[in-house]
């Protein structure tokens, strides 16, 4: 995947370094997966922008890691947590045809 025409130079380098695997769970990236660059040590905790502090994760893995990072130290200022309100109660979308 590191040679994919749509991969940026940074993403291609990270894919090659990670041997096409997500650093969080070790699963292979597949064509069509949503990938996000992640700071191994979050910037809010003193992490740098250097390549050695970056990794590619699946989007859902990045969400899990960001939540874990926030619970361990200073919260990430860029991470938004949405709270439910009365207008967002769960309800069935489709009714059966019986």
Helix tally? 2
The biggest beta sheet is recorded as: 2 strands, antiparallel
Strand portion: 5-15%
Strand order of the largest sheet: 1-2
Q: Could you say which overall geometry the principal axes of the C-alpha atoms support?
A: flat
Number of strands: 2
Distance between the termini: 48 Å
Query: Strand pairing plus helix content: what structural class?
Result: alpha+beta
Molecular structure report:
The protein has 98 residues and is α+β, with helices and mostly antiparallel strands. The protein has one domain. The protein contains two helices and two strands, in the order H-E-E-H. The protein has helices at 9-17, 59-72; strands at 35-39, 54-58. Strands 1-2 form a two-stranded antiparallel sheet. The termini are far apart. The relative contact order is 0.15. The model has no long low-confidence stretch (mean pLDDT 79).
Give a brief description.
This protein is of the alpha+beta class and 98 residues long. Helices cover 23% and strands 10% of the residues.
